[in-house]
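Subject: Interface between my chains keeps coming out wrong

I've been trying for a while to get a sensible model of this assembly. When I model each chain on its own everything looks fine, but I need the whole thing in one frame so I can look at the contacts. Pasting all components below, labels as-is. Any help appreciated, I'm running out of ideas.
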Amino acid sequence: MEYLDFELPIKELEDQLTKCVAIGHESEIDVTETCQQIEKKLAATKKDIYKNLTPWQRVQLSRHPNRPYTLDYINAICGDTFLELHGDRNVKDDKAMIGGLGKIGDQSYMFIGQQKGKNTKTRQYRNFGMANPEGYRKALRLMKSAEKFGIPVVTLIDTPGAYPGLEAEERGQGEAIARNILEMTRLKVPIITVIIGEGASGGALGIGVGDTVLMLENSWYSVISPENCSSILWRSWEHKEKAAEALKLTATDAMKIKVIDEIINEPVGGAHRDHENTFIAVRDAIVANYDKLKNLSQEDLVSSRMEKYSKMGEFKG
Amino acid sequence: MAWFKRKEKGIQTSTEEKRDTPKGLWYKSPTGKIVDSEELAKNFYVSPEDGYHVRIGSKEYFEILFDEGKFKELDKNLSSKDPLKFEDSKKYTDRLKDAKEKTGLKDAVRSAVGKSKGKELVIACMDFKFIGGSMGSVVGEKIARAADYSLKNNIPFMIISKSGGARMMEAALSLMQLAKTSAKLAQLADAGIPYISLCTDPTTGGTTASFAMLGDINIAEPGALIGFAGPRVVRDTTGKDLPEGFQTSEFLLEHGFLDFISHRKELKNKINLYIDLIQNQPIRA
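Reply #2:
Try treating it as a single job with all components included. I did that and got this:
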């Protein structure tokens, strides 16, 4: 387990606890009480740290190397029913964008999401979760296929942005994202979107137009990453913490400005410390929201989705 | 010996008596060609010698595209709020105030309905000089309402993009304008109303990830910068040198993302020709 700066008090207590237990095993001293005290303190410290996170700390958590990624969720939620589908039928198969069919209970879903890697090799293989146009086109192909067969779509968002590369521009990164956004506004099956980590800009929204948009407690969603915002507005990366504050990118803020519909709470200590319960919370949220959407007619579904996005924004006059 | 001899040394004219050429009388294009301002305006703000398309705003485009420059402006009074209380080196509210004073505009887009070659057309045109043509809630709402006007009155729709992208000071709300405008365009498409997207210099970021690339035809002015990620970002990320002409209109045409490039002088003719053709109507002279 890796620890972020502000998590170090937890590491200290956890180390103490391990030592305490070890002493108990090795000697005949009764350490039960000491261990209990440390455990109590650990729980209190965790609660204290994770309750008062700054926006920047949440951004750090959203990128935590031990945090589960898209395929971890799908594999945990669908088990061996998950069937991954590949390719945009045009250029290639984008490894940063994955998709496929899987079951939760008796219901099939089309899962789509950006995928990050866990070590240097797989991070490169997944292009750090930054999809190219073919990734967005693959996503759209799968959504259209789901629409054809009446299968609901679940998108899992975790991306630092769409890939800003030369070939990406040649193949129309902007157009690919734009097309997805437009088609998603009128897709005739329910779309449930979950932001599980980083939700950066058009790269996120390219698979993020949903009837219901959910956000994990320690994820972020905005028009730009705090680092890039800082480098544009302050002309240096040094102000990323201030930028994170200014962008109002946390789940609570997104909820306030009505950009998302629901926050999924993470187990105390964050998703990276308790994968199992995070998977359960996400699965339950998907099922509960699908239950709300499944009886709507296609017309009602599409018109209320359009209505929802038409209302977004604040202005006067 | 010189045939002319200066009687007194140095420049004798006092500062007050010096005469400057009034500002704005001449325009210098990037290739160094100098044009008389009036000439430039008469030539659709295109430098006659090198064909350079000078950046212009909604005022000039409306003059060029609407008959006799006559139009009715839509949703004139919408203006930005500061929903996130955004502050970097400057408060967003101050930025808005400055931009309004400097440009005389309310925000980065104006929409209008008028006749072009005798037939009604709705145009939403962005103004780059208002905070880089950035798209926030007002831009999204005005474009959505203009599209609504097209939809209700069955009038073809055109957006002239000129924008650096989403407006950072409205963060996630500005991102949502991509979805809002695209949802409206989906409705126009379902109703079979033609939508023309004109990309002008520059059309980057969020605009290309929404309405700028969603036209029934996407067209551009020559030499415009059009792209999702700006050239500097692409260079910094990939560490590669960019090919010449990368992300220009011509580059996009070559890669299949534009239907054609139009000189500003032919713009009015070409868009109306397209409308007549696609609507199967007699071609207007």
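Reply #3:
Confirming on my end. The longest helix of chain B spans residues 171-191.
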